[in-house]
Every structure is written in C-alpha cells, then in structure tokens.
Amino acid sequence: MLNGGIDEIPNDLLDFFEKNMNPEYQYKLEKDVPINNQQMLDTTKTILSILFRDYWATEEQKRLIIKKENYEKMLEDKAKREKYGTKIEFDNKKTEDTQQLQMIVYKENKFFKIIRRILNFFKSDREV
User: Fold this and answer.
1) Which residue among 44, 100, 107, 112 sits deepest, i.e. has the most Cβ atoms within 10 Å of its Cβ?
2) How many domains does the chain have?
3) Does any domain span residue 1?
C-alpha cells in the first residue's frame, strides 16, 4: 500500500520525467494485477520500483528492498568474477600488457620540415 502519492515525488524529478517521456506511449496501470504480472517496459518497471522504494515504501519495506538489491548485486558480482576471474587477475594482466608497450617518437624529416616552413611562410603572407 502506498504511503503517499505523486506529491511525495520532488518536482525536479517529475519535470525530468515529463521532459524525457514519449508522449505517444500510453499505458494504463491495472490496479487488480500485481506490477510483476503487468505488461510494461523493463525501464518502466525499474522507474516504478525506484519511486516506490524512495518515496512510498515504509521503513521496513525499504530495508527489505535494499537487502534484496544488495543480495542481487552480490550474485551479479560473483557471476562476473567466475566468468572473468578475480580483480587481482585483471590487475596482473593489465600490468603485463602495459610493460609490452613502447613509446614511438615521431621525428619529422628535414625535407618535409623545410617544405612545411615555406608553405607556412606563404600562408602568413596571404593572411596579412
């Protein structure tokens, strides 16, 4: 159950939504159907979830939501570590790659240097 309504949402956030909304996108929220079962864009579900968590949820609901979000983040990080290896492995690989790089210094050929100066000389005469 909602503790507040649209009045709980800051005006600058409402303005942001209004400026970035698609005016052609029409959606009617069905009150009898849970949000998870309604057909809507994932972005819409995410926005509604954040609004609920930040503005309408009770303190107990907020605590449970944040606990669930942290758990899901931990699972996501664990899956990434299993897929890509640990952060330490990334750091070691980065160091090895960096050691193999060499700096290349470009030295202008004397002939081209003289040609460039001559061209610059004539360019400066035209500008005056």
Assistant:
1) 44
2) 1
3) no
Q: Which two tokens stand for residue 101?
A: 């790089």
d(CA 124, CA 128): 7
What global pTM score does this model have? 0.54
| Helices within the chain (DSSP H only) | 11-20, 42-51, 59-84, 87-100, 110-127
Residue 7 is given by DSSP the state: G
In a domain, 36, yes or no: yes
In order of 15, 30, 65, 100, the CA distances from 33 in angstroms are 28, 6, 20, 59
Domain range for residue 12?
6-127
Burial of 44 (0-12, 13-18, 19+ CB in 10 A): middle
Q: What is the pLDDT of residues 68-125, one digit of tens each?
A: 999 999 999 888 888 887 665 555 555 555 555 555 666 667 777 777 777 777 776 5
Q: 53-86 burial, b for 16+ CB within 10 Å, e for fewer?
A: eebbbeeeeeeebeeeeeeeeeeeeeeeeeeeee
User: Cα–Cα distance between 109 and 55 in angstroms, integer?
Assistant: 67
